[in-house]
From TrEMBL:
<dbReference type="Pfam" id="PF04932">
    <property type="entry name" value="Wzy_C"/>
</dbReference>
<dbReference type="InterPro" id="IPR051533">
    <property type="entry name" value="WaaL-like"/>
</dbReference>
<keyword id="KW-0436">Ligase</keyword>
<feature type="transmembrane region" description="Helical">
    <location>
        <begin position="54"/>
        <end position="70"/>
    </location>
</feature>
<keyword id="KW-0812">Transmembrane</keyword>
<feature type="domain" description="O-antigen ligase-related">
    <location>
        <begin position="174"/>
        <end position="376"/>
    </location>
</feature>
<protein>
    <submittedName>
        <fullName>O-antigen ligase family protein</fullName>
    </submittedName>
</protein>
<keyword id="KW-0472">Membrane</keyword>
<feature type="transmembrane region" description="Helical">
    <location>
        <begin position="132"/>
        <end position="154"/>
    </location>
</feature>
<feature type="transmembrane region" description="Helical">
    <location>
        <begin position="27"/>
        <end position="48"/>
    </location>
</feature>
<feature type="transmembrane region" description="Helical">
    <location>
        <begin position="166"/>
        <end position="184"/>
    </location>
</feature>
<feature type="transmembrane region" description="Helical">
    <location>
        <begin position="190"/>
        <end position="209"/>
    </location>
</feature>
<keyword id="KW-1133">Transmembrane helix</keyword>
<dbReference type="GO" id="GO:0016874">
    <property type="term" value="F:ligase activity"/>
</dbReference>
<feature type="transmembrane region" description="Helical">
    <location>
        <begin position="405"/>
        <end position="422"/>
    </location>
</feature>
<feature type="transmembrane region" description="Helical">
    <location>
        <begin position="361"/>
        <end position="385"/>
    </location>
</feature>
<dbReference type="GO" id="GO:0016020">
    <property type="term" value="C:membrane"/>
</dbReference>
């Protein structure tokens, strides 16, 4: 990671001194202003959060001006091929991780590993009634799996001009990721999928009105289709969960049959072998959130509340990093904020969160302050208006694969923005895979929009030329 971090700084410096592609992106002044604002936050809190806050700043700079940045003067076909290769590598890695994670579930394997800091222990495998697998969070693994399916749809369009033209490997990956989603029991992923479905439904209804096709029959079809889709989503997930719950016990029983620990007769009668103490009854495992474990799902609000109360003391520029207890011992207190203004619960939640606010918007406020939040909100607003505005015209033809790709990426971005109301992936979450995918797709969407505009201009010019020829041809 250190090598990648230093290499990223080198690439930033190289681009700044040579091509300056970073300053050719859509709405780059907002991103640059955020970096200045966050730099002020880092300087104001330098005594307490250095070097971590400075590292945070460089990661944000790399996200904005390396990950988000696409060369607008580069041929679109080059960017298109790069995007397809990027997606294929991403799909391959995620498919492998998902497949091995399912094996860990099948054999009921769980263990702990140290994170990148060498300080914190992270869970993996099937533990606490949820599948972590090779990921350190079931929510992370589940969302990444969904994004790999989105990447498959993108590549279907990029390579074969049809989102339905699946390769066998893409189908295999989609099955793997769906099974992981069921076993991960991820509420964040469910929120993401429901948001995507809601956006598509609302947009479909909007299109009916804009194209003057709205009537009780057409609206009823859309609403009925959305309701049926939601019903199938819930019902199939529940049935899949019920079936998958028997797999760990089945594999364990099969292993005991092979080793001779039990016999087929014991299995038929559901009895233990003489002298044994293990039942041969195949019982399902529980797949659900365990509200009594160390998960923060049920305690997100108290984490948000504690973070906001602490950051409110440095309202304009925040704390640069909300992990207030990183560099102090248990019996000590930080002077970065006035601890007397925080309750015992607030302090406990900040310590438990270890810098993760589980909400990108609150994370931005706590680390970059109100100024940083306003700047990044302005960027998001202009970005969404620019891209959503294209799809709000009645002339968008979705039989065109390029428009399908545009809508797919934009819906994915909006869904991730909703998901980050309960997670922190998009911004100020260093080395976060979901954040890297988000900003890569956001940057590519700018390039794709430019391509659509170029195609539209070519079509208009061709039409004008044709009309001109028709006018002068009699003469």
């Amino acid at each position: 990671m250190k090598i990648v971090f230093v290499w990223g700084i080198y690439l930033l410096a190289k681009d700044f001194l040579t091509r300056r592609i970073m300053f050719k992106q859509k709405f780059w002044p907002f991103l640059f202003a955020f970096l200045i604002s966050f730099a002020i936050s880092v300087l104001l809190n330098l005594t307490y959060q250095f070097p971590d806050s400075a590292i945070n700043w460089f990661y944000v700079a790399q996200t904005f001006f390396l990950i988000y940045a696409f060369n607008p003067s580069e041929d679109y076909q080059t960017s298109k091929k790069w995007m397809a290769r990027f997606n294929d590598v991403f799909i391959g890695i995620v498919c492998f991780l998902g497949f091995v994670s399912l094996l860990l579930f099948a054999f009921h394997i769980r263990y702990w590993v140290l994170d990148g800091t060498g300080i914190n222990w992270m869970r993996q495998g099937f533990t606490e009634n949820r599948l972590f697998g090779l990921y350190t969070s079931p929510n992370m693994g589940s969302i990444i799996g969904v994004l790999s399916v989105v990447a498959s749809l993108m590549n279907n369009i990029l390579k074969r001009s049809s989102w339905k033209s699946f390769q066998p490997f893409y189908v295999f990956n989609a099955i793997i990721q769906y099974l992981y989603f069921v076993l991960a029991s991820s509420r964040g992923t469910t929120l993401t999928l429901l948001t995507a479905g809601l956006v598509i439904t609302c947009y479909t209804i909007y299109r009916l009105f804009v194209r003057h096709q709205a009537n009780l029959k057409s609206l009823g079809k859309v609403i009925l289709g959305a309701g049926l889709g939601l019903f199938l989503f819930v019902a199939v997930e529940h049935q899949a969960e019920s079936i998958l719950a028997y797999i760990p016990a089945t594999t364990q029983t099969a292993a005991r049959l092979v080793t001779g620990e039990i016999s087929w007769s014991d299995l038929r009668h559901g009895e233990s072998k003489a002298g044994g103490n293990k039942s041969t009854v195949i019982a399902p495992v529980s797949i659900q959130h365990d509200e009594g474990d160390a998960e923060v799902s049920a305690g997100r609000f108290t984490i948000w509340q504690a973070g906001v109360k602490a950051a409110a003391q440095n309202f304009l520029f925040g704390l640069s990093d909300i992990d207030l207890y990183r560099n102090i011992k248990d019996q000590e207190a930080t002077a970065q904020v006035d601890m007397t203004k925080l309750t015992t619960l607030d302090r406990s939640e900040i310590k438990r969160a270890r810098g993760n606010m589980h909400n990108t918007y609150i994370a931005v406020f706590t680390k970059a302050g109100f100024v940083g939040l306003i700047i990044i909100a302005a960027f998001a607003l202009f970005y969404l208006i620019y891209h959503v505005g294209y799809l709000m015209t009645a002339k968008v033809d979705f039989s065109d694969a390029n428009n399908q790709l545009y809508a797919l990426i934009l819906v994915t971005i909006i869904a991730l923005l909703a998901e980050d109301m309960v997670e922190n992936h998009i911004l100020l979450a260093n080395r976060d895979t979901i954040g890297l995918i988000f900003w890569t797709y956001a940057g590519f969407l700018n390039v794709h929009r430019s391509q659509l505009q170029a195609q539209k201009s070519q079509a208009i010019n061709k039409d004008l030329k044709s009309k001109f020829i028709n006018i002068i041809s009699p003469y």
